[in-house]
Design brief:
Immunoglobulin-like; six-stranded antiparallel β-sheet; 42% strand; 2 helices; alpha+beta
Length: 339
């Protein structure tokens, strides 16, 4: 019976321990959390290249906000108590339409060394993105550092105290870029409608490492500084496209043809500067940065000649009058002879 009483006491103690665990989290020294960024690419766009940064700012708890997990006190965390690593994107990371990368949230232990045990609150947000075409996300999450006599522990929640998994701490966003279309049009009564014209489009990227999608009849080459040179030969009503341009990317368009062809060049989107070296004419169209819309630049080559048919047309009425006068004169003199 004595042994039975000891077993009962042990079982009761065990139930009390389990009960206590039910209302408090089981912290481990290795408790960590990650920020996850999910980037969805639109079709036929370049890979995002650049850096996304985050803030971990102290947050003052609301008046009705109570300590979680049995903590005695709740307060804003000390400055620098949490930090979030940057996320870097490079072309090799983003070969698919959806890319997921994570950044660790780290507790900076020294910031809590002189603070009492308790719960310390933070807000995690995306602070900036230097990836042109990738917007900053407004989503925020609450983070809590719990200081106990056994160490420091981290949880991240959705605002109601429910701990989130790493997958739930997500700054999902869609990476969108723009398309530049160059269209060739041939006009004029002396134009050869089967003529073709070589084009070179030079794209200055807003960030290093950018790559572009080009249409079937075009080819792209990249310099060491990231500048893209896209070439194509276009005939009447033909186009070339460059997709994956960021809003800050700018393009310069050049068309070349033999001077003897005698075309004048105009554009509906950009000023045309024409030069020639005696044998070749080069038309340059400087296109401004893409901005937030797709852009089409139509380049028109016109060859219109003045045919001197107007002289004959203007003399014809007088020739007709002279002829008619001769007929009347013949009839008049014939009548006079008969009289």
């Amino acid at each position: 019976m004595k042994h039975y009483g000891k077993l009962t006491a042990a079982a009761a103690a065990g139930f009390m321990t389990l009960s206590a665990m039910g209302v408090a989290p089981v912290f481990a020294e290795t408790d960590t959390a990650n920020v996850t960024v999910i980037v969805n690419k639109t079709e036929n766009v370049k890979d995002p290249v650049g850096k996304i940064s985050f803030n971990a700012d102290p947050r003052t708890p609301g008046a009705s906000e109570s300590p979680l997990y049995g903590a005695d006190t709740i307060a804003a965390g000390p400055d620098g108590g949490l930090s979030v690593a940057d996320i870097d994107f490079s072309p090799s990371d983003t070969d698919t339409q959806t890319t997921t990368k994570t950044a660790a949230i780290t507790i900076n232990k020294s910031a809590f060394s002189n603070l009492p045990v308790g719960q310390y609150c933070y807000t995690i947000s995306q602070s900036s993105s230097n990836i042109d075409g990738l917007p900053t996300v407004d989503t925020t999450y609450n983070a809590h550092v719990f200081k106990t006599n056994n160490g420091l522990y981290l949880t991240v929640d959705n605002g109601n105290g429910t701990k989130l998994s790493d997958e739930g701490i997500s700054f999902a966003q869609t990476y969108t870029t723009k398309t530049l279309t160059v269209k060739k049009v041939i006009t004029g009564n002396q134009a050869n409608m089967t003529d073709t014209f070589p084009f070179t489009v030079t794209v200055k990227p807003s960030a290093a490492g950018e790559k572009y999608e080009v249409s079937d009849r075009a080819e792209a080459a990249y310099a060491s500084d990231g500048t893209a040179t896209v070439t194509a030969t276009l005939g009447n009503e033909q186009t070339m496209t460059i997709s994956g341009l960021s809003p800050a990317d700018a393009a310069a368009i050049q068309e070349t043809f033999a001077k003897t062809k005698g075309y004048s060049v105009s554009s509906d989107n950009g000023t045309v500067t024409t030069t020639d070296d005696g044998t070749t004419t080069t038309a340059s169209i400087a296109s401004a940065a893409m901005g937030n819309k797709n852009k089409t630049v139509t380049v028109t080559n016109d060859k219109t000649g003045t045919i001197p048919t107007g002289i004959l047309m203007s003399a014809a009425p007088y020739v007709g009058l002279v002829g008619l006068g001769g007929i009347f004169a013949g009839l008049f003199f014939r009548r006079k002879r008969e009289d």
